């Protein structure tokens, strides 16, 4: 994965925050940067799509972490 | 004055000979004209026969050409029919392949949708936990 665990942690925080309150433009750009780092095709998509892709990326990361911890 | 019998006989014979000569000439002229007409009619008939023969030859040539054209047309129609069948067979085959691909694509999309929904749900819960754990407010 191109993103470090810290960046993924930060991504989770931003995504969690976006579920409760709106993100500032800086936070939105940060979140978009993380998603684009993982999926370069997401460069020009809407912020809603960025959030959806981010949630899927985070979900996959959490599944990976769970499998790694049980192995 | 008395006309001598000898002169009368001579005149009668002369007259008779003249009539006979005239009859012979007329007969000869009639048959000569008849021959000319016959020759003319024969020549015309011969020309007509030649014309009919030429016409028959041309007609036969035309018939042969028509038969050739008909055979070529039939061959072309057969080829067209075969090509038509071939095109429809290929179209049917392509349609079946596209339907199979579409069916497979639908299955793949369903799997992807289900997987992405699951991952999104996991990501949603994990992100929410992380946000709250790091001091975020509801």
Derived from helix and strand composition plus strand pairing, the structural class of chain B reads mainly alpha
Largest sheet of chain B: none
Shape of chain B: rod-shaped
N-to-C SSE string of chain A, H for helix and E for strand: HHH
Percent strand of chain B equals under 5%
Kindly state the percentage of residues in helix of chain A: over 70%
How far apart, in Å, are the first and last alpha carbons of chain A? Answer: 19 Å
Terminal Cα separation of chain B, in Å? 186 Å
Unreliable sequence segments of chain A: none
Please give the share of residues in helix of chain B: over 70%
Summed up, the helix count of chain B is 1
Name the poorly predicted regions of chain B: none
Which quaternary structure do these chains form? heterodimer
Total E-strand runs of chain A: 0
* Mean residue pLDDT of chain B: 94
> Structural class of chain A, please?
mainly alpha
Instruction: Please indicate the percent range of residues of chain A in DSSP E strands (runs of 2 or more).
Output: under 5%
Shape of chain A: globular
Note the total helix count of chain A.
Answer: 3
